[in-house]
Amino acid sequence: MTSRRHGAAGPLFVAPFMMLFALLFLAPLGYAAYLSLFQHKLIGGTVFVGLDNYVTAVTDPLFLRGVGRVAVFFVLQVPVMLLLALLFALALDSGLVRLAKVVRLGIFVPYAVPSVVAALMWGYLYGQDYGPFAQLGRILGVGVPGFLGGDWILGSIANIVTWEFVGYNMIILYAALRTIPRELYEAAAVDGAGAWRIAWSIKLPALRPALLLTLLFSVIGSFQLFNEPKLLQPIVPTVIDSSYTANIYAFSLAFTGQQVNYAATVSFLLGLVIVIVSYVVMLTANRRTAS
């Protein structure tokens, strides 16, 4: 009798999550898939078009340009962010940093700042007319780059995202470092290994699963880039348009152009791109680990 109760306990504990998962994730996903198969026409109203929306989307230059832009963003921003997070985590784990708890909190605090606030704050700092960087440049008599110009805007957004998420990734890597048995360090020190050798031969190999996790999170976050460019858009509408990223394009289609069906299609294709890129990253990482 007791074993039967224990056997039923698992499904009961999981049931609330599964209900919310089905209600808040699977149901909207299914409804969006349903919408993507239809098209609203002036004559005839909403009609079933099958995969016509998907055929249109894969050749849509605005969608492809948005996906390409976030792909460039991913290639440029993510390595810098993860490298900084790794360096901070290794420095804190080394025990050589004074006031380590204060430093750790200071690095993590930007993640606690809402992305809306972060984007508005950096938008003010970047301002060419009123921003402190521009004012300081005028005082010193030196030119200041147009951080919100067409040539700099992607790097400026990357800087905001890096500032926000270095601390988050650092915490994940630091937590992984704390799980490594101290005996390994002691044995390596007895064999004559220094701090750099221990970091390279023990810490970095042990961090591979955590690094892969942060990389996958970064893939998802990069291709879903929305908040930062959307909030900077009113400041530089000629630089950040309604299709600057794929996510902004889907938003504009749905809420500005009232093309809900096509917006659902674009969102589904963006999700497919994220799945493919994530799979390629995992496959590449697993092959390198196996070799």
* Beta-strand fraction estimate: under 5%
- Please give the number of β-strands: 2
Task: Note the total helix count.
Answer: 13
* First-last Cα distance: 50 Å
- Ranges with pLDDT <50 over ≥5 residues? none
The whole-number mean of residue pLDDT values reads: 87
Run of helices and strands: HEEHHHHHHHHHHHH
Give a written overview of the molecule.
This protein is an all-alpha fold. It is built from 13 helices and 2 strands. Helix 12 packs antiparallel against helix 13 (260-290). The longest helix has 34 residues, at 2-35. The chain is globular.
Topology summary:
Blueprint: H1 2-35, E1 38-41, E2 45-48, H2 52-58, H3 61-94, H4 100-112, H5 115-126, H6 132-140, H7 153-178, H8 182-190, H9 195-206, H10 208-223, H11 227-232, H12 246-255, H13 260-290
Antiparallel strand pairs: 1-2
Write a brief caption for the model.
With 291 residues, the protein is mainly α. The protein has helices spanning 2-35, 52-58, 61-94, 100-112, 115-126, 132-140, 153-178, 182-190, 195-206, 208-223, 227-232, 246-255, 260-290, and strands at 38-41, 45-48. It has a two-stranded antiparallel ribbon with strand order 1-2.
Keywords, separated by commas or semicolons:
2 strands; 291 residues; 3% strand; globular; mainly alpha; two-stranded antiparallel ribbon
